[in-house]
Amino acid sequence: MHLSEFKKPQDIYVVINYLKGIDKKINIMEVCGTHTMAIAKSGIKSLLPPNIKLISGPGCPVCVTPSEEIDAVLELCKNNKNLIITTYGDMIKVPGSKPNESLERLKAQGQDVRIVYSALDAVDIAKENKEKDIVFLGIGFETTTPGTILALEEAINQKINNFYIYSMHKLVEPALRALLEQPDFDIDAFLCPGHVGAVIGEEGFEFLVKEYNKPSVICGFEAGDILIAIYKIVNQILNNRVELENEYKRVVKKEGNKIIKNKVETYFKVSDDLWRGLGLIQNSGLKLKDEFKEYDASKKFNITLKQSNINSACKCGDVIKGKIEPTICPLFGKVCTPENPVGPCMVSSEGACAAYYKYLVF
Ligand code: SF4
After folding, report:
1. Where are the transmembrane segments (predicted)?
2. What is the pLDDT along the chain (362 residues), one digit of tens a residue?
3. 342 lines ligand 1 (CB under 6 A)
């Protein structure tokens, strides 16, 4: 079924009525933050019976970036006056382990921190500010890595020698494996992110079915896409099927995007990486290969991670792991709000706490 066909209200009613009649308990994890926001915004949760639960997963880039990384970036910013930090918008509000420190606050105190809409903008800033060092904070999953690669290629081709990348890029598969290996993990099926699928392909999610026996559907981001995917998951479970289905065939191919996959292999090496809530996960991050160390901010500025202690009342780790809903966190909506976020899940436009705050609770 194509999305345009599914936009007919009468078809949506059919699916909603079907789902409302299901009394089996089914926990579905939506892996990515874009789905979390789309689900909250469209009111899909309120259309489902209480026994079909949608639970947010570890797919919000800002949320999974650990406080140790945030602290390291803040230190870098404070200690280098000749620096311009460039980053996507959500990152600047994330507090480090000290509650009153963030890139936004450093910017207010006079540090040069700039929001960019693409990594290429950071290269332009480097061209315009040759006397300064420009650091681009590379965060996100398979979907944002290509933008960082474009910027790196531009810097190489144009022989720009004041542009550096601090790569905190992460991979979806190792995080899902880490979650699935947890003894109390209580998820029956997965709604897989279509944009990640566009890069890694259907084959990138096959392990969920083959190794972990979890029905999974790759899904787009319209409300219609998400409803179809939930319907397909429920249908599999009721009929004792365990399959990987691709609801987003208009974008996601079996093998994904080979050009991007090859470029990632060219520029990055897979490394162990630290995740908020999930700890150190083997082979879960992307760092620049040694051949490109002259563009690597971690080498240029000798960035090292130090252990950090976050507010113990913040439950972002449990939210990221799908163990609790945001409203269970004692700080939600009281101490922690979008204006005064305590944890990254309230900051990010893809964070579960922000989605609950904006669309489901207040
Ligand atoms: Fe973290 Fe705030 Fe969410 Fe609590 S409400 S889990 S402190 S972001």
Report:
1. none
2. 455 655 666 778 888 899 999 999 999 999 999 999 999 999 999 999 999 999 999 989 999 999 999 999 999 999 998 999 999 988 999 989 987 899 999 999 999 999 999 999 999 999 999 999 999 999 999 999 999 999 999 999 999 999 999 999 999 999 999 999 999 899 999 999 999 999 999 999 999 999 999 999 999 999 989 999 999 999 999 999 999 999 999 999 999 999 999 999 999 999 999 999 999 999 999 999 999 999 999 999 999 999 888 778 899 999 999 999 999 999 999 999 999 899 999 998 889 999 999 987 76
3. yes
CA distance 270 to 169: 10
Same CATH topology for 3-59+182-246 and 63-171+283-300? yes
The ipTM (two decimal places) reads 0.99
CATH superfamily of 3-59+182-246: HypD, alpha/beta domain 1 (3.40.50.11750)
DSSP letter string over 302-350? T---------TT--HHHHHTTSS-GGGSTTBTTTB-SSS-SSHHHHSTT
Among 60, 346, 347, residue to substitute to test ligand 1 (most atoms within 8 Å of Cβ): 346
Single-letter code of the amino acid located at 351 = G
The verdict on the CB of residue 195 being under 6 Å from ligand 1 is no
Given the CA of residue 336, which atom of ligand 1 is nearest to it?
2
CATH number of 63-171+283-300: 3.40.50.11740
Task: Retrieve residue 248's tokens.
Answer: 């987003």
